[in-house]
Task: structure prediction
Amino acid sequence: MTAAERWAEQLAAWAVPEEILAAAPESPWGFPPGLFAAVDDGPPTPSWRRALEALGSGGTVLDVGVGAGAASLPLAPLATEIVGVDESPKMLDAFAAAAEERGVRHQEILGRWPDVADSAPEADVVVCHHVFYNVPDLDQFALALDAHAGRQVVVELTAVHPQVSLAHLWLRFHGLERPTGPAVEDAVAVLAEAGIDAQVERFERAPSWATRHPSERVAFVRRRLCLPPEREPEVDEVLGNAELAPRAAATLWWDVGR
Result:
């Protein structure tokens, strides 16, 4: 089995059983836009430092899976233009509004990467934060990132699949054992197999929930678990502060020589 096949197989193991999905009162997918908003006063991450170094005195940025701009907006004012790609119109609206507030030139592309890659311009730096674990065809996804970068690609992801931390809740509420992978090492193996020599820097980052109201965190997790709103007190009790602890993460980056 290739590294790419192993990656896809591990992601497929996260599928929610049909009977649980059918009983869910609302879709368990999606994120509130504010969860991926840019933070102007947070500590610089290795991902931001790498991207800033690659931008040098200035350049363009392509942000794949832009959300509300958390990966790319902190790169202003060195980023002379930011192009955001996302599947969610709400996320793109939030990104556009935040870019306007900062006076950053911006462009939005609606769609799934790499399906919309032909619509995206090449940029000096391509960033992609916390998207890899949603991508079964990771090799083709990464090669499309590489093809659009003039200088460097910078990727950020948690050390293991982000839903691993909720495994005890799936067991508690559904009696369902969840997978334990994939992890950063699996992503690096896929990239290497595709001919991409990625460098890795590990660090710890505060979870996005750290600045959100506790009720938002509980509602999000409850929805992820396919449970009705009346179960939120139980979710809150079992969840505790587990999702607030710093998470192990990694920055992957590679230079593009063309």
Q: What stands out?
A: The CA atoms of residues 107 and 161 lie 30 Å apart. The chain has one domain: 3-164+175-210+246-255. The chain has nine helices and seven strands.
